[in-house]
Amino acid sequence: MGAGRGYCCCFTGHRRVPAQGIPAVRQRLRREIARLAGDEGVRDFLAGGAVGFDTLAAQEVVAAREEIPGLRLVLVLPCMGQESRWPQREAAVYRTLLRQADEILYTAEVYQRGCMFQRNRYLVDHSAYCLCYLRDTARGGTAYTVRYARQQGLQVINLAGWDLEESQVSLFTQGPPGVL
After folding, report:
1. Could you tell me if residue 175 is inside a domain?
2. Rounded to the nearest 5°, which phi and psi values hold at 75?
3. Cα–Cα distance between 22 and 16 in angstroms, integer?
4. CA 113, CA 102: separation in Å to the nearest integer?
5. Average pLDDT value for residue range 82-107
6. Contacts from 146-149 at CB under 8 Å and sequence distance 24+?
7. What is the pLDDT of residues 26-42, one digit of tens each?
8. Which domain does 9 fall in, by range?
9. What are the residues whose beta carbons fall under 8 Å from the beta carbon of 63, sequence distance 6 or more?
């Protein structure tokens, strides 16, 4: 990756974003990407390549590159061919993002137990900021990743429409969720 950790932002979020909420999430993503690039000097945006929020976030970085020179989309993927069992439409969108990415990193060559967890840790370990879409703080990969990001001192911004409070952070699962 080109920039140091302080100039990187990762994304994490649920695979399902309600259709009626997608325009608002896209608008929040655009606003926060522009703010982080302008105010904080963030240049590298790291996305995990999953369906849902990850895809929306990656698409918004690609769109923002037209107006903000120097932005880079870095896809940090759990394994090669992760889209092989996805529906055709989602796999096609994914392959488009692969072509549009400035850099692609894989945390495992083939799917194996824990590769999603490794991907999530890599995203956080190489970022100073985390834009998330978190609605369920009690369980799942997104909840775990946001908790880990807070523990690592990242500035976490929740785009799901409500802010995380310390009382909610304690609700996160304590260990890695395993295969997500």
Report:
1. no
2. -90, 120
3. 10
4. 27
5. 94
6. 146/12, 146/172, 147/172, 147/173, 148/120, 148/121, 148/124, 149/10, 149/12, 149/124
7. 999 999 999 999 999 99
8. 5-169
9. 30
Integer Cα distance of 76 and 108 in angstroms: 10
**Looking at the domain assignment, is residue 122 inside a domain?**
yes
CATH number for the domain including 39? 3.40.50.450
Determine, yes or no, domain membership for 84. Answer: yes
Cα torsion through 110, 113, 116, 121, rounded to 10: -110
Judge residue 174's burial from the number of C-beta atoms within 10 Å of its C-beta, 0-12 exposed, 13-18 middle, 19 or more buried: exposed
> Structural domain tally of the chain?
1
Longest dimension (CA), the chain: 41
In a domain, 118, yes or no: yes
Q: Are 94 and 83 in contact (CB under 8 A)?
A: yes
Q: How far is CA 76 from the centre of its chain?
A: 9
What pLDDT is attached to residue 136? 77
Give the 3-state secondary structure of residue 131: strand
Give the pLDDT confidence of 51-92 residue by residue, as tens digits: 999 999 999 999 999 999 999 999 999 999 999 989 999 999
